[in-house]
Amino acid sequence: MAAQASDDIFDPTEFDEEEVQEDYAEVTGGRKRLFSKELRCMMYGFGDDQNPYTESVDLLEDLVIEFITELTHKASEIRNKSGKVQCENIIFLVRKDPRKYARVRDLLTMNEELKKARKAFDEVKYVSN
To answer: Has residue 29 got a pLDDT over 70?
Structure first.
């Protein structure tokens, strides 16, 4: 029985990192994780461990991508002249959810303020040269 126990012990020399990465790529569909770093930071900010489990981050990323994909498809189905997804389409879709609506409005307002600040900075930089 002692011989069997020694066989069950993890031997780091038998660990093939490339094989594990290939297996992981198969499980995740082989796609690149886009938001892992940001989601880890957000999870930590909301009270998770500083280094959350990779599986938790991947699950959350799958949910985020699914949400964005569904919202984008719905927004593209809304009739508009250009056939493109526009901010107004997203606002229309989230209008009944007060928290999402407020956040979209805040982000759009902040985006406009940043554009104005960049423009003013570029004008000052251009004038001083």
So the answer is: no
